[in-house]
Task: inverse folding
């Protein structure tokens, strides 16, 4: 199991050091600093073995978190724990920075004592933790016996993520379907790989212990119900993802509140939600993805000292919808000496420090086209190696789900309190963002 | 309120100030002071001097302050054990507190205070807490048992905590169950045979029920524990799988990977014709792909595991090639792993896409990545025959880029392609030759030279090319030198008329001007071959080479099976068994997959043929052996890198023999033989049992030389394992050496621990200090079927090639069978080499004793031998150590003895034995 946990700043100074096992000594703290943080070369692996001691690290801005062990631990668990640790800290004091960590070091030690016992991760749900570890010192000394046992039963209980007795005057929930669409396209416009990774994020402000059921246009469910109709109908015929009947989900994973065995047997998603914001599910689709933009690159080398670049982008969704925050990044060679850019729409700039031309467009409606052309002057070099031509990448945000996912319902049942599904105010929003959206040139 | 100010105090006299503040009456001030202490502790300052003052703050009802004090205690209690006792009372009291949070805090902290004296006080409170009404306290107490076990295992057993812990598996609270499972699993690891977990269908059922209800971490503990269970039959196996599969949809990647581990393991037991088996295979792919959208560190862990899964069950991910395509912004460690998996998944169906990708990668920035991509193209060519041509043309395109390291890497892989497809792509040689000058890495130079030599008849100016390399012969690395030597000899055999001068030149460079024994030896062999029988030389040097295969980079099957049992853990990340990186008793157990299902229905199930062990093994040639392989087309010598260099001067060699030789005989040998003694004390007469290992070399001879006065033969050590089955694809070899009737014999036991029959055994030794070599072939007449053991005695001669080894009696052995070639080394007792006619004439002895220079003399003591001189003399004679004369001086017996070694070296010894004193003194003298 985890033998120790250290947090360092960018210089390698220790901010937090908590040792759980006897086989981890103070020298481990220094070993990591010397061999990883101060190592000149790029980190070649997130797991490092130094003198029979294994170090797992993750970095958040310029803070290093390292877990140390001498045993054959579950490596996936250690990383999951480190991520969770970051989530918990963020939930308590915001951004993970040197200042915040120093300001909250007592709190962090307290948390570490609670969520990691002898190196075994324990309940790390912030909802539960916040009931008895607070920034104003610890609760627990002036509570009634009932309150105390309620805390402990929640921390250890089956529904460790929600406490009893929550009350709202207005029962309300917000569902965000957040998708990132990933693309790798060849210069000829052939899709090399494309997938959508999506998340359903829920903000719930519901009283009591509500039982929820979530439904979406999952092909398997729709087909089973026999309402699916012609699922073979090509999704692209109706742009904007509004018309597609059902979508094939390659795989999905759920927050621990979802009853997985029920999903496995009936494919129904039922759960008692945590209070406040959390991620209900993640999913991935690869079929019939609506690619919101198409990038058509044209790069011509004119002699050894000049490049001509022309890039066309085409939006591919309903004309009534608007894409936002569009950014096209065209890489330039390291020996670029000057760039002239002409673009029809938006603003384009050559950023020497980033070796790229960055073209920004605030808004763009569907079924439109725009173009940029640039002349790149190069310094002559005697470097034999050809320029590697990194891909052209794109960023954007669109108000629909590129996978075609639709929320069909979210039903709320709370039998003990007198509010029904109809009384709950529900909001659904779809946001599609670019993930790694690249076209080779 | 910000706490960062506590980090900034660096002034002198700080400790003193803190002391005052800690003893302040004001609560707030106290708390501030403790915070400062903790901050100092964090940055590594020694604040242990404040121990009593901090502990004084413990008696407080302020929980935050209490936690801080506890944190301090955990850090410093070990350095101040006596003071730590002061804290015991508070702990005991806190364990009775009304607030469950405080009870749990106390029991949690107590377990972390590693002071023996305290642990005794801990037992009673812990016992109570294990039965506490509050689950939060119970789950904390469960972990505390593991803590206590780590400090004092005996105490935990004596107090019966293990039984209480087992009871907690049936607890009503899932988190208590999970922590109890975690604690038990860890304790069980240090008691490999205790059957502590005692998993049976009832407990498994309880675990599976808790699995649905506990936290994500608890699920991991339970799944990891389930993985160590061996279901009784395929039905039980299936029902567990059915209940574990829902976990594949968990958001926590570690839960998913642990579930995959359970499924991969239990799947072994399912018959392959079962519908469910197919369903399960299909269910595994999507979650594995989903792992690739996790954060990069987790992706890395997942990819290392997928690498194993793909080797074990390629069918799971065979359609998922695209998801392993490298993204431009992936961290380098993710890129390299993806590349590896792409090659493993490459098949005729997807090769076009893979090649297009690899070509793209070969233009990237990171040198390691580019090299690996180029190498991958070569591996694709070898793996997918239909693609070879495209791969070669892709490689040629890359060579045209003239990027130095790309060219070199391409040439290295093209050499392998030539070996896989002889006489097919030689048209590209001309292009390769154009790049000769740019090659500066030994591997690439060696590869190019090999190509020139191998195809000398097609390259018009082969002699010029090779000659150009010859100019800087001495500056080349060994690899290149060896290759150059072989290439020129090949050239000579192909075009004898024009290249006579060249071959003379290289042979003299190799044999006369080189200090490298390998090079010299190879040079001599060629020289003699060429001068005695050119036809034979042609047959040997230009013989057909065995084909290279893609299997070379696969993980060896027994290791792979073990690693599959460790999916998700560090072992699966390192691709090493836990014993390779974990200290102590933990992780030493080797995990195994359950036995394959389906043996009942049809032994000739079509899948067995595909699934590895019983498959007709391809001719595998370890890449390192390539160079030596050229020499005789059969690679039976250990890797050159391990061979130590030899002193060129004969005189020096002789000197070493005395120092090292006698050392080994009398001293060093005790290491090996002493170990043998320790292992089999029952074999010794009880009265002699006290002879300690220090007596080593001679001690053994005294003890076991047979009855008094009846020399029956030399001592034979019990057999020890020389080659582990794990390292040799299932072949285990143990053995020992004996000298019987003047003949040296190597007694071997060959055991087949693999699943397929082994045949075609052969053995060969590396050059060694005394020229030991097999006197005949290894006689294994019948094929060795699985689980069978065969004992063989191999007669040895001492007429083999000589090279000094370190240690002197080290012997490197290569054993070949139909599966592969394996190497191991063992050490023989020096007494093996003492010949029967080693009795020197008295006069000669006297003269020789005087003539030997003092430098050749060494002195030893052999301790604790309870024998008188006559018995000793008799026993030694049994091992061909002869007593020439005996003298008694001042109550001491002086024995003068002679020994002759197989290589004609005489060793003369004077042994002084004092009656009643068990210590012998030996003066050794050596003459060549």
Result:
């Amino acid at each position: 199991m985890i033998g120790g946990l250290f947090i360092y700043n960018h210089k390698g100074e220790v901010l937090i050091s908590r040792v759980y096992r006897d086989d981890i000594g103070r020298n481990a703290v220094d070993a990591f600093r010397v061999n990883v943080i101060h190592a000149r070369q790029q980190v070649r692996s997130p797991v490092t073995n130094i003198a029979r001691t294994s170090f797992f690290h993750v970095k958040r801005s310029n803070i290093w978190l390292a877990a140390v062990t001498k045993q054959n631990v579950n490596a996936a668990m250690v990383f999951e724990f480190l991520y969770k640790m970051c989530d918990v800290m963020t939930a308590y004091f915001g951004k993970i920075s040197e200042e915040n960590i120093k300001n909250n070091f007592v709190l962090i030690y307290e948390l570490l004592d609670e969520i990691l016992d002898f190196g075994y991760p324990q309940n790390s749900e912030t909802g539960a933790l916040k009931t008895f570890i607070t920034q104003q010192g610890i609760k627990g000394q002036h509570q009634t016996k009932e309150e105390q046992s309620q805390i402990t039963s929640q921390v250890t209980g089956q529904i460790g993520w929600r406490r009893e007795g929550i009350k709202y005057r207005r029962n309300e929930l917000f569902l965000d379907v957040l998708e990132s669409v990933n693309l790798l396209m060849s210069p000829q416009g052939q899709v090399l790989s494309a997938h959508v990774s999506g998340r359903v994020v829920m903000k719930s402000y519901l009283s009591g212990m509500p039982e929820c059921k979530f439904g979406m246009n999952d092909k398997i469910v729709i087909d089973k119900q026999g309402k699916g109709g012609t699922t073979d109908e090509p999704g692209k015929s109706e742009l904007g993802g509004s018309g597609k009947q059902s979508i094939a989900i390659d795989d999905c994973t759920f927050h621990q509140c979802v009853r997985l065995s029920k999903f496995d047997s009936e494919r129904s998603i039922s759960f008692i939600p945590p209070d406040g914001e959390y991620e209900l599910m993640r999913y991935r689709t690869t079929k019939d993805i609506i690619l919101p933009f198409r990038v058509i690159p044209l790069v011509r080398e004119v002699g050894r000292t000049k490049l001509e670049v022309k890039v066309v982008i085409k939006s591919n969704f309903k004309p009534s919808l608007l894409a936002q925050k569009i950014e096209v990044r065209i890489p330039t060679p390291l020996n670029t000496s000057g760039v002239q850019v002409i673009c029809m729409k938006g603003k384009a700039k050559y950023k020497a420090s980033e070796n790229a031309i960055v073209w920004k467009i605030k808004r763009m409606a569907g079924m439109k086209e725009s173009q940029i052309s640039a002349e790149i002057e190069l310094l002559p070099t005697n470097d034999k190696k050809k320029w590697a031509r990194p891909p052209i990448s794109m960023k954007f945000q669109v108000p629909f789900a590129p996978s075609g996912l639709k929320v069909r319902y979210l039903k709320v049942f709370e039998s003990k309190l007198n509010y029904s599904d109809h009384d709950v105010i529900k909001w659904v929003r779809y946001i599609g963002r670019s993930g790694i959206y690249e076209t080779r040139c | 309120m910000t706490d960062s100010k506590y980090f900034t105090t660096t002034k002198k006299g700080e400790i003193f100030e803190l002391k005052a503040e800690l003893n302040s009456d004001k609560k707030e001030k106290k708390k501030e002071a403790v915070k400062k202490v903790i901050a100092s502790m964090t940055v590594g300052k020694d604040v242990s001097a404040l121990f009593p003052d901090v502990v004084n703050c413990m008696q407080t009802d302020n929980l935050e302050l209490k936690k801080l004090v506890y944190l301090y205690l955990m850090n410093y209690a070990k350095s101040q054990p006596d003071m730590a006792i002061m804290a015991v009372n508070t702990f005991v009291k806190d364990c009775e507190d009304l607030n469950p949070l405080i009870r749990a805090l106390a029991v949690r902290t107590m377990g972390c205070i590693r002071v023996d004296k305290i642990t005794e006080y801990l037992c009673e409170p812990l016992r109570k807490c294990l039965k506490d009404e509050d689950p939060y306290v119970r789950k904390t107490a469960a972990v505390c048992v593991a803590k206590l076990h780590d400090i004092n295992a005996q105490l935990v057993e004596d107090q019966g905590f293990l039984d209480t812990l087992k009871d907690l598996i049936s607890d009503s609270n899932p988190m208590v169950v999970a922590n109890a499972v975690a604690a038990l699993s860890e304790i069980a690891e240090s008691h490999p045979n205790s059957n502590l977990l005692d998993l049976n269908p009832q407990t498994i059922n309880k675990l599976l029920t808790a699995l649905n209800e506990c936290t994500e971490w608890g699920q991991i503990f339970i799944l990891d524990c389930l993985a160590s269970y061996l279901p009784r039959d395929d039905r039980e196996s299936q029902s567990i799988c059915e209940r574990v599969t829902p976990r594949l949809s968990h958001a926590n990647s570690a839960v998913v990977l642990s579930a995959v581990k359970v499924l991969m393991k239990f799947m072994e037991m399912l018959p392959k014709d079962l519908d469910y088996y197919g369903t399960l295979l299909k269910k595994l792919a999507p979650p594995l792909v989903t792992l690739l959208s996790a954060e990069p560190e987790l992706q890395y862990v997942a990819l290392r595991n997928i690498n194993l899964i793909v080797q074990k069950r390629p069918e799971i991910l065979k359609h998922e090639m695209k998801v392993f395509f490298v993204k431009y912004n992936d961290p380098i460690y993710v890129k390299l792993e993806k590349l590896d998996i792409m090659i493993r998944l490459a098949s005729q169906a997807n090769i076009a896409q893979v090649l297009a990708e690899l070509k793209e990668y070969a233009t990237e920035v990171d040198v390691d990545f580019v090299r690996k991509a180029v190498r991958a193209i070569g591996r694709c060519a070898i793996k997918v025959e239909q693609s070879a041509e495209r791969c070669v043309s892709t490689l040629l395109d890359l060579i045209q880029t003239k990027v130095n390291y790309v060219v070199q890497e391409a040439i290295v892989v093209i050499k392998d392609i030539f070996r896989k497809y002889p006489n097919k792509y030689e048209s590209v040689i001309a292009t390769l030759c154009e790049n000769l000058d740019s090659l500066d890495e030994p591997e690439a130079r060696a590869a190019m030279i090999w190509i020139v030599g191998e195809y000398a008849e097609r390259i018009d100016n082969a002699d010029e090319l090779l000659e150009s390399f010859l100019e800087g012969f001495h500056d080349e690395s060994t690899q290149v030198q060896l290759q150059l030597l072989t290439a020129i000899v090949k050239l000579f055999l192909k075009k004898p008329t024009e290249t006579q001068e060249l071959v003379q030149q290289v042979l003299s460079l190799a044999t006369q001007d080189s200090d490298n024994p390998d090079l010299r030896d190879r040079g001599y062999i060629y020289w003699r071959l060429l001068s005695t029988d050119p036809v034979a030389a042609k047959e040997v040097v230009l013989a057909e080479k065995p084909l290279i295969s893609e299997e070379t980079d696969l993980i060896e099957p027994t290791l792979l099976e073990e690693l599959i049992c460790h999916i998700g853990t560090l072992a699966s990340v390192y691709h090493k068994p836990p014993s390779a990186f974990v200290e102590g008793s933990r992780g030493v157990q080797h995990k195994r997959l359950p036995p394959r299902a389906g043996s009942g229905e049809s032994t000739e199930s079509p899948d067995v043929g595909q699934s590895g062990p019983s498959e007709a093994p391809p001719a595998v040639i370890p890449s390192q052996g390539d160079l030596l392989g050229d020499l005789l087309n059969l690679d039976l010598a250990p890797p050159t890198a391990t061979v130590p260099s030899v002193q060129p001067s004969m005189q020096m060699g002789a000197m070493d023999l005395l120092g090292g030789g006698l050392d080994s005989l009398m001293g060093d040998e005790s290491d090996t033989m002493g170990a043998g003694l320790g292992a089999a004390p029952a074999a010794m007469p009880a009265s002699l049992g006290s002879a300690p290992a220090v007596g080593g070399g001679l001690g053994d001879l005294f003890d076991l030389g047979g009855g008094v006065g009846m020399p029956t033969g030399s001592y034979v050590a019990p057999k020890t394992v020389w080659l582990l089955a794990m390292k040799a694809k299932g072949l285990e070899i143990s053995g020992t050496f004996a000298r019987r009737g003047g003949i040296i014999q190597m007694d071997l036991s060959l055991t087949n621990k693999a699943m397929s029959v082994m045949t075609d055994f052969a053995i060969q030794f590396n050059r060694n200090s005394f020229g030991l070599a097999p006197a005949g072939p290894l006689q294994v007449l019948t094929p060795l079927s699985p689980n069978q053991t065969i004992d063989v005695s191999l007669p040895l001669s001492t007429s083999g090639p000589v090279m000094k080894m370190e240690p002197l009696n080290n012997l490197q052995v290569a054993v070949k069978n139909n599966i592969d070639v394996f190497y191991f080394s063992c050490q023989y007792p020096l007494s093996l080499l003492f010949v029967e006619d080693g009795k020197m004439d008295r006069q000669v002895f006297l003269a020789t004793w005087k003539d030997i220079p003092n430098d050749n003399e060494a002195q030893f003591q052999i301790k604790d031998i309870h024998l008188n001189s006559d018995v000793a003399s008799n026993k030694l004679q049994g091992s061909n150590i002869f007593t020439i004369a005996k003298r008694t001086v001042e109550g001491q017996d002086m024995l003068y003895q002679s020994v002759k070694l197989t290589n004609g070296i005489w060793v003369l010894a004077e042994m002084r034995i004092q009656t009643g004193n068990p210590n012998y003194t030996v003066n050794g003298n050596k003459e060549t």
In short: Residues 562 and 591 of chain B are 5 Å apart (CA to CA). Chain B touches chain A through 115 residues (CB under 8 Å). The longest helix of chain B spans residues 650-679. The longest strand of chain B covers residues 731-740.
